[in-house]
Design goal:
The strands form 2 sheets. Strands 6, 7, 8, 9, 10, 11, 12, 13 and 14 form a 9-stranded mixed beta sheet that branches. Strands 1, 2, 3, 4, 5 and 15 form a 6-stranded antiparallel beta sheet that branches. By secondary structure, the chain is an alpha+beta fold. The longest helix has 15 residues. The chain contains 6 helices and 15 strands. The structure holds 4'-deoxy-4'-aminopyridoxal-5'-phosphate. The site of 4'-deoxy-4'-aminopyridoxal-5'-phosphate has 14 residues, from α5 and β12.
């Protein structure tokens, strides 16, 4: 935190901190995937995560004293010092640290940075296909707060949609954008399968440019020989697709079994979704030699208990 490695209980911010009041932070959600066979932690596409975070920093006038390489090194060090030997969630946050209230001019405010790592299992509490509903909350538009950056304040939009979906008994919400097209889940991108074609909303649809999204696009094309389309997707396609799945660092590749009580095909995880999962999981855990160059490796420095 701000240049030092400290125990969690010593990593504190004051109640005047700007980011706490206004959500003025750019952050990332990264997984540490523990490989029991070789006793190492694998972080998938770590550079891409920090490149995305730094674009968010630019928008928010956050000027960190670190390069992408520095941030990758810091993250590796945090994971190694933590000593965890299980799957992790890694959360770096670049934030407006100035302890000053009632000031909305970003450029007059000091910046801070921390990165924490905690044990983490499934993001959505289900190993099977999940139930979704279309949220009544629309995805924020690029002209409001740009959703293509991972900015803290933006997540109020996702949080309202997710909270309502859970309250209604669904696992996840699917958000439409302001023009009524399908946008994404609250913390995941969305994909549709019809025959040999995979479709996902374009980056201009107000989706987050997901790292898993790009990975799935590449895997579907290169490994499964499928056609991949990025196009505006109508709401009605949620009720007609052969398969629908969500992608995200936290959610991995998550099959959808129903939308608004209407079953997607058989209601189980679809064949293409399953194939993509079977490709994806070994890659992010360091078990596919072809993709080792997409991984940053960390080995715990603290002796196993
Ligand atoms: N959309 C939103 C709104 C998200 O929060 C996330 C999670 N970062 C994603 C999509 C998926 O992005 P990624 O694959 O990079 O984790």
């Amino acid at each position: 935190m701000n240049g030092e490695y400290v125990p969690l209980e010593d990593a504190k911010v004051g109640i005047m901190t700007h980011a706490l009041h206004y959500g003025t932070a750019a952050f990332e959600g990264i997984r540490g995937n523990w490989n029991e066979d070789d006793g190492k932690m694998y972080m998938f596409k770590l550079r891409e995560h920090y490149e995305r975070m730094l674009t968010g920093c630019k928008l928010l006038w956050i000027d960190l004293p670190y390069t992408v390489d520095d941030l990758c090194e810091i993250t590796k060090e945090v994971v190694e010092r933590s000593g965890f030997r299980q799957d992790l969630y890694i959360r770096p946050v670049a934030y407006k640290s100035e302890e000053k209230v009632a000031n909305l001019n970003l450029r007059s405010l000091a910046d801070g940075f921390f990165c924490l790592a905690i044990p983490f299992g499934n993001y959505i509490d289900s190993d099977g296909a999940i139930s979704c509903t279309v949220a009544s909350w629309r995805r924020i538009d690029d002209t409001m707060v740009p959703p293509r950056f991972k900015l803290s304040g933006l997540y109020l939009n996702s949080i309202l949609a997710k909270t309502d979906a859970i309250a209604m008994g669904f696992d996840e919400a699917i958000m439409l954008n302001m023009d009524g097209h399908v946008c994404e889940g609250t913390g995941e991108n969305i994909f549709f399968v019809s025959g040999n074609t995979i479709s996902t909303p374009t980056l201009e649809s107000n989706v987050l440019p997901g790292i898993t999204r790009q990975t799935v696009i590449d895997l579907a094309r290169d490994e499964l020989g499928m056609d991949v389309e990025q196009r505006p997707i109508d709401r009605s396609e949620l009720y007609t697709a052969d398969e629908i799945f969500l992608t995200g660092t936290a959610a991995h590749i998550q099959g959808i079994g129903s939308v608004d009580y209407r079953q997607v095909s058989t209601g189980a995880i679809g064949a293409v979704t399953r194939k993509l999962q079977d490709l994806y999981f070994p890659i992010v855990r360091g078990q596919n030699p072809k993709y080792m160059n997409t991984l940053t490796v960390a080995a715990p420095k603290v002796a196993a208990p």
